[in-house]
Design goal:
4-stranded mixed sheet, about 260 residues, alpha/beta, about 45% helix, globular, 2-enoyl-CoA Hydratase, Chain A, domain 1
């Protein structure tokens, strides 16, 4: 089953591939479980500076869960609860991942595929991409844990529009509604995604992790503590800060160490 989730590394950038091209990368229960395991493994690797998530090939990111699996794995409440627990564990690994995550979206990004993309920090898609969640046609609910990333990304009105209408949004509408950060020509999606990942990887990695942490904290309505407020100054104590400002004064490109 591990072959259905591939990892590829190029220096500080790791690519995670949803690898079922013969099924448009439709997700299975085993894929969800392995994806969570991989994300936890990558989260623990402090040498990583950016993660790219993509589907195999250039026709689909993922069309959602494999419906043919439902009869044996998700045909009643008890099975759905067990299946959902695995999905929820995987979403939790995305939430706690300290590294920036960029979704490379070719073609279809629907249902569970959209849920994964929504959990990423950035999303880049092609002009022919289609995004949505037409699960009302299956009489399926997007559970609160599954919906959370989408809700935080686009808010209540657009979340409900996507779920109540069940239509697929084209790339430009997805951009207008904030579902994606950038739309490029289909044959430029890979190039632009890795250019984005490289720009991220060239920055100070501790700073990227702090920024992710601070943004997530804003979803908690409780007031920031003095300790949390003070954390915004901890970067001044890093070796990378010394490298950064000295390189700026010397008009040289900084090479950060993540320390």
């Amino acid at each position: 089953m591990s072959e259905l989730i591939l990892t590829q590394r190029d220096e500080h950038i790791v690519t995670v591939v949803l690898n079922r091209p013969e099924k448009m990368n439709a997700l299975t229960k085993g894929m969800w479980q392995r994806l969570g395991e991989v994300m936890d493994e990558l989260s623990a690797d402090e040498s990583i500076r950016c993660i790219v998530i993509r589907g195999a090939g250039d026709k689909s990111f993922a069309p959602g869960n494999d419906i043919s699996e439902f009869e044996k794995e998700r045909s009643n409440i008890e099975q759905a609860r067990a299946y959902g627990a695995i999905m929820h564990q995987t979403f939790a690994t995305f939430e706690r991942c300290p590294h920036p995550i960029v979704a490379m979206i070719h073609g279809i990004c629907v249902g569970g595929g959209l849920e994964i993309a929504a959990m990423c920090d950035m999303r880049i898609c092609g002009e022919s991409s289609r995004l949505g969640a037409p699960i009302k046609q299956l009489a399926l609910v997007m559970s609160p844990m599954e919906m959370r990333g989408l809700f935080q990304l686009v808010g209540p009105a657009t979340t409900l529009e996507i779920l109540l209408e069940g239509r697929l949004l084209d790339a430009q509408e997805a951009l207008q509604k904030g579902l994606v950060n950038r739309v490029v020509k289909d044959n430029k999606v890979e190039k632009e995604t890795y250019a984005t990942a490289q720009r991220i990887a060239e920055g100070a990695p501790l700073v990227a992790r702090w920024h992710k942490k601070f943004v997530k904290r804003f979803y908690d309505p409780t007031p920031l503590t003095d300790t949390e407020l003070d954390e915004g100054y901890q970067c001044y104590g890093t070796e990378d800060f010394q490298i950064g400002y000295q390189s700026f004064l010397a008009k040289k490109k900084p090479v950060f160490k993540g320390k």
